[in-house]
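name: query_chain
kind: protein
chains: 1
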Amino acid sequence: MSLQIFCVGKLKDSWLQEGCHEYLTRIKKKYRIEVHEITSDEEVISKWLKPRRELWVLDEKGKLFDTKEFSTKLASSMQQSAQGVGFLIGGANGTSTQVKQKASQLWSLSPLTFPHRIVRLLLLEQLYRAFSYLNNEPYHRE
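structure:
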């Protein structure tokens, strides 16, 4: 089972690249994860979204989870999706309605609005936090 992160656009800021690399390195010690930079969100439908795969779209109007809820939902999705779970970070103009309709989950990191390039770092940190929580590792504190 693998995790895929699809990001519309390229990450150009070196400080964000470094942060993303740090969390990717941590996650890859235990889980298969890949990040794909794509030109449009529709690419996800044609190239990745197949039966037995889940797609979570990050969207400001999506469901809010606390760390425990997200960790539990992620673990469940990983068990049920034999071929993987994907996360889509749309571009500056958001994600198309067509893609949102095909998503398994619309998820919001916060009621605040973030630049899409920063969302990649936030998503990776939250994935690392969720895995740490699920594995009873000390990263997440209550």
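note: The two ends are 29 Å apart (CA to CA).
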